[in-house]
Design goal:
The chain is mostly beta strands. 7% of the residues lie in helices and 39% in strands. It has one domain. The chain has one helix at residues 45-49, and strands spanning 11-14, 18-26, 29-35, 60-62, 65-68. The protein has a five-stranded antiparallel beta sheet, with no helix packed on it.
Amino acid sequence: MLVLSRKVGEKLVIDGNITVEVVRIKGNRITLGLSAPKDVSILRGELEKSPVELSKYEMVAEDRALVAC
């Protein structure tokens, strides 16, 4: 596992086509913005490990970036 420190507005680029940006830091919570091609599935860890019906969750994409879930 790679562990990095990032500040608000700083980004990570994965494999040249996936971008992770630190959008906000408030207390002990951070908000991340993710941009990836449409064929790349992005799930929160707890959804990947449990058998939930993903259709119950709505993904809102804006300009190829996940903005709400």
